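Severity: low
Component: inverse-folding endpoint
Summary: output formatting inconsistent between runs
Steps to reproduce: submit the following structure tokens with default settings.
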């Protein structure tokens, strides 16, 4: 008996922000009836099918945000129940993507497999590879992809499942992935290793979105869409072929809000990587194909017979390493052995010490994203390939500059609330607080996290104390001079401080005033410090990152060293991470989270 199953994809065209749910649901029902009329046994809908693709918007209104999510049981909720009851009547299974507000308060980008015969959810998948960013792009014209903001990475793994076949014994093995997952060979292989025969993948893929794709803003939109479509089919065909499986993909496509283009290209692919059916439009459309599951056997028992051919002893990197670790540069790492042969230094070191990827979160506690970017630009050339620095800008109500105590506390609170869930998701190795002060966030995070946390001021002073006997600080405003003086005393360094000189500039003046003006006042301040005996000068504001050379120009000849706090901080933390150091929890930095929980105050 051939194990043939008729599968369908329900592609959905433009769905705008203003479209009502009943309107979108009625389109889904029409597609369902069309698939059933064509005798499909299962129909796949796109990712986040019941609403527009909202992660492209920065949504501040909690009610609007909640309206895009499905709450409670998807099978019985008023917004979605009709789809499932109709599928049950028509005897057709459904796989559909939606934004899930789970009962425990967590939010995921989810898809389920609904089995009509048993009226039950057979399997649930939560999207694992969340593309895009937490923060929107600075450019207001850019298309955003804020999935990292709105969802947690899926926690259910890539689990294949059998679909019961009351009429026979076909029992296909299926697996789900969502959109960006399809670009990751790891996702396919996890399903392939469970003998998957049908991979289901709903998607929303931007056509022309140069910021997202990291491509040229002036690229031809039509060409950009062709490339995006090419990549979509490439990964569906490649994943199907290399795992000897059928795949079904369903697009949400067209031009949302008359502005955001999404590619079509929904397709059903066979286990040889051949396209069996493909959507012709970028509108609502059903495609159908008969899939003989036994055709998977050829690939699964020959070229991709995993049990016979895979060499897992050489695949360790795939699970041990996340980011890229290039081979060390040849010039700097060649050692000459006694026999005149060169060896590669990294190979002489035990694994997982020098070579482990270190991920440092650079947290700018003010809400000025351009300042975060300047800090990242500054640090980038100093990083080895095994260190990654990820920028974070505090969300509002953090102020755009931190110039006093009110700003300090407001920014610490806003940043901490966003950072705690971020760290739970991303598990960074250390945090650098990029505000030149004894910022409240530093001690908050030391309490809440176990990883090392330091601010750029403290890191600068430690470096300055290492490099010279007396240091001086170039401050922004006269007020910051007082604040820095207090912080120097707090750090117990006043005995080594030759002075603090203010430039009479506000934090944002550092960006807004002409560079030559800023440079000259900073140089003058540095010279005064040297006159007072400073051997090392530190730059007293994250916004001064990038002015190191300019200050060195003025004072470097006199043997004076200039320390940039961002660079000092990142490398200080990398050292601590390499040492395996953790924040001491027995005293001052014990977390008070448990106490808050006991009091029923888990409101952060
Ligand atoms: N929805 C989704 O995952 N879209 C992504 C866009 C990536 S943005 C660079 C995709 O991979 O198609």
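Observed output (run 2 of 3):
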């Amino acid at each position: 008996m051939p194990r043939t199953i008729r599968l369908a994809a329900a592609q959905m065209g433009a769905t705008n922000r203003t479209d009502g749910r009943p309107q979108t649901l009625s389109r889904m029902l029409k597609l369902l009836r069309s698939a059933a009329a064509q005798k499909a046994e299962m129909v796949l809908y796109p990712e986040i099918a019941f609403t527009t693709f909202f992660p492209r918007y920065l949504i501040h209104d909690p009610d609007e945000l909640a309206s895009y999510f499905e709450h409670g049981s998807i099978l019985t909720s008023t917004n979605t129940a009709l789809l499932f009851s109709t599928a049950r009547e028509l005897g057709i299974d459904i796989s559909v993507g939606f934004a899930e507000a789970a009962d425990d308060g967590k939010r995921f980008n989810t898809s389920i497999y609904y089995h009509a015969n048993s009226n039950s959810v057979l399997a649930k998948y939560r999207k694992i590879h969340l593309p895009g960013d937490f923060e929107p792009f600075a450019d207001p014209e850019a298309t955003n992809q804020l999935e990292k903001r709105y969802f947690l990475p899926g926690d259910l793994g890539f689990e294949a499942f059998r679909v019961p076949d009351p009429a026979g014994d076909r029992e296909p093995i299926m697996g789900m992935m969502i959109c960006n997952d399809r670009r990751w060979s790891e996702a396919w292989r996890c399903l392939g290793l469970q003998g998957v025969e049908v991979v289901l993948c709903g998607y929303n893929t931007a056509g022309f979105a140069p910021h997202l794709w990291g491509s040229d803003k002036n690229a031809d939109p039509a060409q950009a869409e062709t490339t995006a479509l090419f990549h979509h089919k490439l990964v569906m065909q490649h994943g199907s072929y290399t795992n000897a499986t059928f795949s079904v993909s369903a697009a949400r496509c067209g031009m949302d809000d008359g502005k955001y283009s999404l590619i079509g290209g929904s397709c059903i692919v066979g286990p040889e990587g051949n396209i069996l059916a493909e959507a012709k439009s970028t509108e609502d459309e059903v495609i159908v194909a008969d899939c003989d599951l036994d055709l998977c056997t050829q690939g699964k028992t020959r070229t991709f017979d995993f049990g016979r051919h895979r060499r897992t002893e050489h695949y360790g990197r795939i699970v041990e390493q996340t980011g890229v670790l290039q081979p060390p540069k040849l010039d700097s790492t060649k050692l000459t052995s006694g026999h005149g042969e060169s060896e590669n230094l990294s190979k002489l070191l035990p694994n997982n010490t020098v070579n482990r990827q270190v991920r440092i979160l650079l947290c700018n506690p003010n809400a000025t994203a351009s300042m975060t970017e300047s800090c990242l630009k500054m640090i980038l050339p100093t990083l080895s390939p095994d260190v990654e620095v990820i920028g974070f800008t505090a969300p509002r109500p953090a102020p755009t500059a931190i110039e006093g105590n009110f700003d300090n506390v407001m920014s610490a609170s806003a940043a901490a609330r966003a950072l705690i869930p971020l760290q739970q998701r991303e598990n960074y190795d250390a945090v650098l607080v990029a505000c030149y002060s004894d910022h409240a966030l530093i001690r908050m995070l030391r309490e809440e996290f176990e990883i090392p946390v330091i601010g750029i001021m403290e890191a600068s002073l430690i470096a300055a104390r290492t490099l010279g006997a007396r240091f001086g600080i170039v401050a922004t405003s006269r007020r910051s001079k007082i604040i820095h003086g207090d912080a120097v005393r707090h750090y117990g360094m006043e005995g080594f401080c030759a002075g603090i000189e203010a430039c009479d500039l506000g934090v944002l003046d550092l960006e807004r005033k002409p560079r030559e003006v800023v440079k000259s006042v900073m140089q003058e301040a540095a010279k005064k410090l040297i006159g007072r005996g400073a051997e090392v000068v530190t730059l007293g504001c994250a916004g001064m990152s990038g002015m190191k050379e300019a200050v060195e120009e003025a004072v470097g000849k006199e043997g004076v060293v200039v320390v940039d706090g961002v660079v000092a901080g990142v490398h200080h933390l990398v050292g601590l991470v390499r040492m395996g150091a953790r924040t001491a929890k027995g005293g001052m930095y014990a977390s008070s989270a448990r106490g808050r929980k006991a009091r029923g105050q888990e409101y952060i």
